[in-house]
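Entry:
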Amino acid sequence: MKIKSTLFLLLILLTSFAGFCQNAKILHYSETSGFDHNTRSNSLAMFRSFPNLNVVNDLNGRSFDSLSSLLNYDLIVFSNTSGSNILDSSQRAHFEIYMMNGGNLMGIHAASDTYRHSTANGNNTGVWDFYANTLGGSVQQSPNHVAGTPNYDIRTLINHPSTLGLPLIWSKNEEYYYWENGYLDSTIQVILEVEETIGPNNQVNSYDSARAVSWYKENLTTANNRIFYTSLGHANSNYTSDTLFQKHIRQATEWCIGRINSLQYSSNEEQSFKISPNPSNGFIKLASSIKDYELKVYSLDGKVIESYFIHESEKTMDLSHLNSGVYLLKFNCRSCQETQKLIIR
């Protein structure tokens, strides 16, 4: 009987592993009716280099003609799409049904300059606000972005699978978008933000303040959706030679299709950072071989409560002023990113 039970368990594990390794079906959509970044070929090649994906290329929106076909995709990627004249009303309706039935969406760079939201479209009423509402944002109308592709620092704000292995401070040349006079959905969770920039007028404007670069959303209405957007991806070099950008997108794709969870924890024994005692009364000791790192304390709803920069391998901290409950402690260093749960009684 024990042998049969073991074989049955092994069969379940093998079946689960096979399901995980099955190719997910991805729609790579890159049609434009506005500015064309001409990144579609390299973007497609990048997605096709990711493991266990069946990537279908769509240059003209034909994949949206059939609802039954659209519903077969695990993820739809709007890669540097632009403008408000790419999908007809029937195709847009099919996308809405796809999303309302649990579909997943990824937008790259000019995807937020596609079907601009009415509140971010000057004197014009938006053609399709559902899209911007779903994606999470529309770039500011004028100016859209900084001049050229200057180098600025990007910082990770919250733990997300898409940031695993990224440096705490990522210095990157990019066409950084503006959002102040655009549209941002209130439900987005900002993952990465760029530091304060200098505007095209060579001044620091209010819209140049530190702002979102990448974000995610989950659970549109009652559907179990995963939605990810990044304003990175202006230049072709992102898709051909920027390994950090490619890692960010690959891991975001894995999250969108459900292969990895929003937050993944492992036990303290498997972590580089040790918290003791846990549970505690708020007085804790942190121990690690890493001496320079950032620690952020989050509530379970994802809000940053406190932030520290620590420059020693052992640190005693007083968090007794926090209410009793469960908190997330996120550790960031140049080569690591870990999240652990802390219980305060």
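The two ends are 45 Å apart (CA to CA).
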